[in-house]
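Would you kindly consider the sequence and fold I have copied below?
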Amino acid sequence: MHIEAFYHFCMDFPGAKEDFPFDENTLVFKVMGKMFALADVDEFESINLKCDPVRALELRAAYEEVQPGYHMNKKHWNTVSMQGNLPDDLIKELIKHSYELVVAKLPKKEREKLC
């Protein structure tokens, strides 16, 4: 997956917004102000995605490209290498899972705004 495809896939989710809250290189995707994906736009070597803790451990065991979240809560975030051989369909599934986890934790009133 190239950065353009990553960008458009993330922006297609309801309520998704892009932001650069840390520096001019770290692109963060948020829904209702909560992060669900981030990546370095210059290098695009990896992406950070939120993940269910049990599934995170399973993914890390199954794929060397999936590691504990770099500079993130390692229980809830994975760093996914974009330099490996992960299929785009799996990467898209992981991005969607991250988005859905964040949306599920939003207050009902905010979730309803996304429909």
Notes: The first helix runs from residue 3 to 11. Residues 26 and 106 are 24 Å apart (CA to CA).
